[in-house]
Write a structure and sequence with these properties.
Its EC number is 3.4.14.10. This is tripeptidyl-peptidase II. Keywords: Calcium, Glycoprotein, Hydrolase, Metal-binding, Protease, Secreted, Serine protease, Signal, Virulence, Zymogen. The protein is of the alpha/beta class and about 575 residues long. It has 14 helices and 26 strands. The chain folds into two domains: about 120 residues, no CATH class; about 375 residues, Rossmann fold. It is about 25% helix and about 20% strand. The longest helix is centred in the last third of the chain and has 21 residues. The termini are far apart.
Length: about 575
């Protein structure tokens, strides 16, 4: 007869044997080299705590992508039938087995994770370097950015248990490096007084209102943007705020008094704060980027409800500086803004491919719910987010390479507009070219021939998609008038155009535009003014040239409001 103790052992044996073995590690992600500007300084202190983020393999993203295109393509029978919060989350939510398996692995190693995304596909967990090194078979080191002196702990490769392959998508931050110059605000050049009296300059021939600087009135004249106030209270435009850039309300009042005297000068923005964000109002705290984005959305999208979303430094997305947090915040609410503009980004080669795909999928989710997502393409021409000649091949920017958002380049001058030389554009090395732009891009590549052959990925997602004024734009900062330049100007300008179109669509009982690109590359293309001259040099080349049709400098072109109204069915 078997003893009671032996029977108990036999009873638990199947459970033990059925548990996965987490000791067999396989290489999961790696970098071939250290990003430009960084050097390896030393081994990371074994007791330094790493706040890691685990991206779980998401559910049925292929079907969600199909649904996104169905509701965003004008020729589709489902056009405009945007998905609900619950519908999107049902596609994104990881399989129950995935969540269970990852949590079992963490528990077996004495760790507990916290869910930090609405669909449960992101987990947060902390551990010392010593534990992370053994858990991921990784060599964590201190890397120093030579120009800024900023230090960060990263690894060039890491492994995960083979049992988690197909369940654990990535661990962050591991091989992703920050770009210290990626999110720098635009440069503000002060001047003594507003440009209320203008003398025509031949170099800026065009509407009289544009003869000296770019203001809301100039844009109304140049692009045919109406000055009549929007009427729909449900229509919203979100402005992303990062790196302690604060939008000053007193500066906004001064801006409106001088450049939109027809608007109430007490018009302001709504404020949303995440990650311990705030919006300090001392004149010395006024942010150039934040002021630019709020002044030119409120000043151009007359009457539209503008929200400034201030992202603080308590990041939940682990050294993504709130880039995912702001999207997760918007995905967590029922009534997100119909347009979101962001004037920040980084070089694609600084970020893990898996992480880039995950962030891109977050934009897919928000787009499926009916939000138009616009990002400035960057200010380095073909050399990335900032101008440099220290590159042998062209450097695409992120998230402009993501196919589920709209990238905005910049123009200069008004008679006629030409490509701004700093306007970043090119082809992604991570994301394949989407079908909505294949015809336009193939025409460009055919005309390009062998120029710059081998310096870019001809099969990658091409950007920018559209463009707008990006130079000599007048704003108010800390009570001073001055000018700024960059694609940071262009994104809020074009976002304002789409917000005004959305207002009219809502008033007419029609759905808002949502994800824009399938529309822009089809029925919307003829509603844009093609920019046919100018280049975006970098990497010791002249870069690409603007020409007839789409090009990787100004995209499909700049807005013509009257034609866009017709194109969207108004």
């Amino acid at each position: 007869m078997l003893s009671t103790r032996f029977l108990s052992v036999l009873a638990i044996l199947p459970i033990v044997l059925s548990s996965p073995v987490f000791t067999n590690l396989v290489l999961h992600e790696q970098r071939d080299d250290v990003p430009d500007g960084f050097v390896k300084s030393s081994a990371a202190p074994s007791d330094q705590v790493l706040n890691l983020r685990l991206g779980l393999v998401q559910g049925d993203m292929a079907t969600l992508e199909q649904r996104l295109y169905a509701v965003s393509t004008p020729s589709s029978s489902q056009y405009g039938q945007h998905l609900s919060k619950e519908q999107v989350e049902s596609y994104v939510k990881p399989a129950a087995e995935t969540t269970s398996l990852v949590n079992e692995w963490l528990s077996a190693n004495g760790l507990t994770a916290t869910t930090i995304s609405p669909a449960g596909d992101w987990l947060a967990v902390s551990m010392p370097v010593s534990k992370a090194s053994s858990l991921f078979d990784a060599e964590f080191s201190v890397f120093t950015h030579q120009q800024t002196g900023k230090q960060t702990v990263r690894t060039l490769a890491y492994s995960i248990p083979s049992a988690l392959s197909g369940h654990l998508d990535f661990v962050h931050p591991t091989i992703t490096f920050e770009n210290p110059f990626a999110n720098l605000p635009v440069v503000f050049t002060p001047k003594s007084s507003p440009s209320s009296k203008r003398s025509k300059l031949a170099s800026r021939a065009g509407p009289d209102s544009c003869s000296e600087v770019i203001t809301p009135t100039c844009l109304q004249d140049l692009y045919g943007i109406p000055a009549t106030p929007a009427t729909q209270s449900t229509n919203g435009l979100g402005v992303s705020g990062f790196i302690d850039q604060f939008a000053n309300e007193a500066d906004l009042t001064t801006f409106l008094q001088n450049f939109r005297p027809d608007m109430p000068d007490n018009t302001t923005f709504f404020l949303a704060e995440i990650d311990d964000g705030e919006n300090l109002q001392d004149p010395d705290d006024a942010g150039v980027e934040a002021n630019l984005d709020t002044q030119f959305t409120i000043g151009v999208a007359t009457g539209v409800n503008v929200s400034f979303i201030s992202v603080g430094d308590d990041f939940q997305d682990g050294n993504l500086e709130g880039f995912l947090d702001i999207i997760n915040f918007l995905l967590s609410v029922e009534n997100q803004p119909q347009v979101l503009t962001t004037s920040y980004g980084q070089n694609e080669n600084t970020i893990s491919r898996n992480l880039a795909v995950n962030l891109c999928n977050a934009y897919m989710q928000l787009g499926a719910r009916g939000t138009s997502i616009l990002f400035a393409s960057g200010d380095g021409g073909v050399s990335g987010s900032q101008q440099t000649n220290n590159c042998r091949t062209f450097v695409p920017t992120f998230p402009s390479g993501c196919p589920f958002m709209t990238s905005v380049g910049a123009t200069d001058g008004t008679g006629p507009e030409v490509a701004a030389s700093f306007s970043s554009g090119g082809f992604s090395n991570f994301f394949a070219q989407p079908s909505y732009q294949s015809s336009a891009v193939s025409t460009f590549l055919k005309n390009l021939g062998s120029t710059n052959s081998g310096k870019f990925n001809t099969s990658g997602r091409a950007f920018p998609d559209i463009s707008a004024q990006g130079n000599n734009v007048e704003i108010v900062v800390g009570g001073e008038f001055g000018t700024v330049g960059g694609t940071s100007c262009a994104s809020p300008i074009f976002a304002s155009v789409f917000s005004l179109l959305n207002d009219e669509l809502i008033a007419a009982g029609k759905p808002v535009l949502g994800f824009l690109n399938p529309f822009l590359y089809s029925t919307g293309a003829d509603a844009l003014t093609d920019i046919t001259s100018g280049t975006n040099p970098g990497c010791r080349t002249n870069g690409f040239s603007a020409g007839t049709g789409w090009d990787p400098v100004t995209g499909l072109g700049t807005p013509n409001f009257a034609k866009l109204r017709t194109a969207v069915g108004l």
